[in-house]
Amino acid sequence: MRLGLARGSRRLLYPLLALDAGPQRQPSGIRFEAMRRIVVLRELYTLGDALVATPAVRALHRAYPDLEIGLVAGWRNAAVWRHNPALSRLFVLGAGVKPVRFAETARDVRAWGPDACLTLVSIRCHATLDMLARMSGAPVRIRYDAERFGGAHSNVAYNCIVPLRLPREAHQIDVCSGVLQPFGVEVVDRSLELEPGPEAEERARQVLRAAEVEDATPFVVIHPGSKQVHNRWPLERFLEVREHCVRAGFRALLSFGPSEERARAWFVGSGVPAHDLLPPLAIEELAALLRRARLLVCPDTGVLHVGATTGVPIVGLYGSGDPAVWQPPGRIRAVSDHARGNVRAIESACVIREVEELIACTAGPP
Fold first, then answer.
1. Is 239 a domain residue?
2. Which residues of the chain have a pLDDT value below 70?
3. Do the beta carbons of residue 53 and residue 120 sit within 8 Å?
4. What CATH number did the domain enclosing 326 receive?
5. Exposure pattern of 316-338 as b/e (b: 16+ CB <10 Å)?
6. What are phi and psi of 119, to 5 degrees?
7. Residue 2 lies in a domain
8. pLDDT given for residue 18 in this prediction
9. Are 218 and 250 in contact (CB under 8 A)?
10. Which residue, among 222, 168, 193, has the nearest Cα to 329 in the 3D structure?
11. Nearest to 291 by CA among 277, 316, 309
12. CA–CA separation, 154 vs 146, rounded Å?
């Protein structure tokens, strides 16, 4: 849920956020062990960015187990955090009238009484997060120096600025979590985390039964969609990969996002059986289903990051994104055309070869 501030509005916003911001503090003078509560802010709108923050939140909890951690999530990504054991409180920025929902969330965070607010940024700055930080009531507000992200003006919302010394080619997990290093927090476990919960597990079982996939049936999941146009691989090549998996003895199920009805219709028109087209699934339901799959094939999108939380082997297709920066930990084979930034240049044969090799080196053929 974006507030959609125009550039002119932002020029007015930041002088207001600077009012009564308090003196600047050095990271060396801040002690988390003396605090009771901290609220964490992270990108609200994209699934992959939310999941990339899970190692940092887990590391913070392990370093300071007595510290209550709250987190603000956008309603679409709330499932990433709903069952996260590191959190004491989850604040969900809901859908609906944007200013009203924003004000309600800011009020709830302030009433919770955090001693500090920590904003995790690794790509860009967000006016929404900056406003939440100032309105949180936290006397300590921590974030990277935003000069790297082209938003040095937004530093005024924070009174503890941490220098970003990592190289530009550093992995997103390391950039996201590096802001915690001055406070004695090191990320040892870099795995992404999403706990589906019992209701999602039951929903996954129901969906597989409806698709006539028995417990012993080996199946792969192919997710052809991507919100980003530059990550969209041609549908006919996904179809080639699917047909290869079927010939190899697997059930090949196709999953789609809520706005991908055109792609679904294309596969129906191409002769894919209806029971091989998965119904729309919530994030946690998809995670529960992928836990049972033998393989996931998808572009560089949020679904790839969801798959990485489950341990399923993945063949990921990368166009403009550099796998060295974006690929999450796990059993993942990246097929990349990063040099040209053109995912459409990837041939079907390259993907099929990675599918074969990944299956062979994990659980073997069906």
1. yes
2. 1-11, 21, 96-97, 338-339, 363-366
3. yes
4. 3.40.50.2000
5. bbbbbbbbebbbbebebbbbbbb
6. -100, 120
7. no
8. 74
9. yes
10. 193
11. 309
12. 7
Yes or no: say if 14 and 156 are a contact pair by the CB < 8 Å rule.
yes
Handedness of CA 204, 205, 207, 211 (dihedral sign): positive
Residue 307 CA: distances (Å) to CA of 47, 242, 315, 356: 12, 18, 10, 18
User: How many domains are there within the chain?
Assistant: 2
As a residue count, the chain comes to: 366
366 found inside a domain? no
- Which tokens sit at 152? 């040095």
Which neighbouring-strand residues pair with 335?
317
User: Does the pTM of the predicted model rise above 0.90?
Assistant: yes
Burial status of residue 291 (CB atoms within 10 A of its CB: 0-12, 13-18, 19 or more)? middle
Quote the domain boundaries for residue 252.
198-361
Are residues 179 and 205 located together in one domain of the fold? no
Cβ-based burial of 26 (10 A; exposed 0-12, middle 13-18, buried ≥19):
exposed
CB atoms closer than 10 angstroms to residue 244: 17
Clarify whether residues 26 and 162 are in a common domain: yes
246 and 177, same domain (yes or no): no
Q: How far is CA 188 from CA 121, 178, 270, 285, in A?
A: 19, 12, 46, 28
Q: 202 and 179, same structural domain? A: no
Judgement on whether residues 96 and 218 belong to the same structural domain of the protein: no
pLDDT in tens, 188-220: 999 999 999 999 999 999 999 999 999 889 999
Mention every residue, 6+ apart, whose C-beta is less than 8 A from residue 172: 52, 122, 123, 325, 326
Q: Give the distance from CA 318 to its chain's centroid.
A: 16
35 and 177 fall within a common domain:
yes
Q: Are residues 177 and 204 in the same domain?
A: no
Amino acid found at 315? V
- Mark whether 238 and 290 lie in a shared domain: yes
Q: What are the beta bridge partners of residue 318?
A: 336
